[in-house]
Automatic annotation (TrEMBL):
Pfam families: tRNA-synt_1e. It catalyses: S-sulfanyl-L-cysteine + L-cysteine = S-disulfanyl-L-cysteine + L-alanine; 2 L-cysteine = S-sulfanyl-L-cysteine + L-alanine; S-disulfanyl-L-cysteine + tRNA(Cys) + ATP = (S)-disulfanyl-L-cysteinyl-tRNA(Cys) + AMP + diphosphate; S-sulfanyl-L-cysteine + tRNA(Cys) + ATP = (S)-sulfanyl-L-cysteinyl-tRNA(Cys) + AMP + diphosphate. Belongs to the class-I aminoacyl-tRNA synthetase family. InterPro entries: Cys-tRNA-ligase (IPR015803), Cys-tRNA/MSH_ligase (IPR024909), Rossmann-like_a/b/a_fold (IPR014729), tRNA-synt_1_cat_dom (IPR032678), tRNAsynth_Ia_anticodon-bd (IPR009080). It comes from Nezara viridula (Southern green stink bug). The keyword Aminoacyl-tRNA synthetase applies. In addition to its role as an aminoacyl-tRNA synthetase, has also cysteine persulfide synthase activity. Produces reactive persulfide species such as cysteine persulfide (CysSSH) from substrate cysteine and mediate direct incorporation of CysSSH into proteins during translations, resulting in protein persulfides and polysulfides. CysSSHs behave as potent antioxidants and cellular protectants. Keywords: Aminoacyl-tRNA synthetase, ATP-binding, Ligase, Metal-binding, Nucleotide-binding, Protein biosynthesis, Zinc. Its cofactor is Zn(2+). Residues 69-358 form the tRNA synthetases class I catalytic domain. This is cysteine--tRNA ligase. CDD domains: CysRS_core. NCBIfam families: cysS.
Amino acid sequence: MIIKSVCNLDCIKCFDLLKYKFKGYLLNTSIKPISNGNFYSTSTEKSYKTGLTVYDSGVRKKVEFCTVLPKTVLWYCCGPTVYDSAHLGHACSFMHFDIIRRIMEHYFGLNVIMVMNITDIDDKIINKANELQQPCQRISHHYEKEFFEDMHKLNILPPSITARVTDNIPEILDFINGIMDNGLAYATSDGSIYFNLGKYSGYGKFSPKQESDSSQQSKLGSEDFALWKSSKSGEPFWESPWGKGRPGWHIECSTIACKYLGHSIDIHSGGIDLKFPHHENEEAQCCARFGIPKWVNYWMHTGHLFSKGAEKMSKSLKNTVSIRDFLNSYTANVLRIFCLLIPYRNGVELRKETLDKAFAMERTISQFLLDLESIIREGKKVNFDEQLLFKVLHETEEKIIVSFSDDFSTNKALSELFHLISTTNSMIKSSNEEYNTKSLYCLAAILNFTSSTLKNLGYDYIDKKNIAYEEVEDLITSTIQFRSEIREAALEINKNQPKELLEKKKTLLKACDNMRDNFLNCGIELKDNGKTTTWRYTERKINATTKT
């Protein structure tokens, strides 16, 4: 039964008309699920192999990854509670899952359907609204928009479907009704609904005991958790058969996931802090609602990001670094390399040394791609062992696939890629006349492989062949060539020349340096190598210090 809900919030009418300029991040509230009652089943007697092995938090070991549907992954990812700016801990978790999603799509040919919720009604949002004396909806809409802007800046793919809790109240009420009809939930005198753990035998997949809450004396059991909370004075509410109230935290994810993905899904993901009680309770709700022993086939959790020592980065501890503050010091590519270096299940401390390592690796990658592009574009003569280099390339391709298939071991894959880069650089720089290299197709193959691998992992590599302002490249090159000629002429002035000429040399070189800095501010990096200069597109001038 679908129950119509009535919200007492003052709507911000313009918000739903606002079209985010970031394609793909629009909330897909118009998408209709395939109906079987009010939810649909994806259960099948078959499962389909993918070639992947993943660590399933539910069984605490690596297992073969098989899907409910052929070549398709049904994935639910817990989204943000939008009451404040997203911090770097959130960024790392979402980026890890973005990398995993890209690996599934690009290397294993899987069609990933990712659903993510937006928690836009919650105690934290209510508290923030009271603190700022603004409507809850204004708070949630502001931080929701900011969250998606941050994800765009980090080059994190948008979910296939994004759903707000407040847009799914009828489905939540229906879901609660289903659990009650099965005798596993009950109403209290104040109009709240609780899950009855005393009657549910399947609890404890992640932890044998629920956190006790003795604040609600009307509960049958101290460990029972809320499905529906009766309204308090001054709080947002919706009408329900049990009175005015709002959803509990756990029920929203169960409802939204089942609405769009059915009651047998492949992956459910989130930070390790959500494993218990949130994910435990989600699993219990779905199994109770549909009378099934198992809802999620694979649970995936990312490790904590620690700010210092063993202190988890958390808003409650006031030790967070916002995504926007981080991007004032480093690029999104640096954060992505940082995440590639760390297995997604591992906790990691945010240390400047680690970030600087990622920064240095980003510079190595960029310079390597620039050097290969320059050699190929200018047809430079280099001599190296083509047979050996092709062998290294093919071995790298194979080892990277093996690394990805083993629970997405990006740290191993990145190590293999850098071995290829190091080997290629070594051969190029020690060009040996013993080898009479007749063409550059080997370097072109390595350039294609390296750039495509990075792109597939979400590294924002700017391909100069496809850049939107390709038509101005000749102008850029001519301008840089003019600077190079001025710089070369200045460098030829030796210290034995008259003082006036030496002063002129300083002036010219300073002007060349200023021009280099101005180019960098425009997203073009110049690299002086003796009397010659090369250039590449970059994101912006980078300050290699961090606020962490």
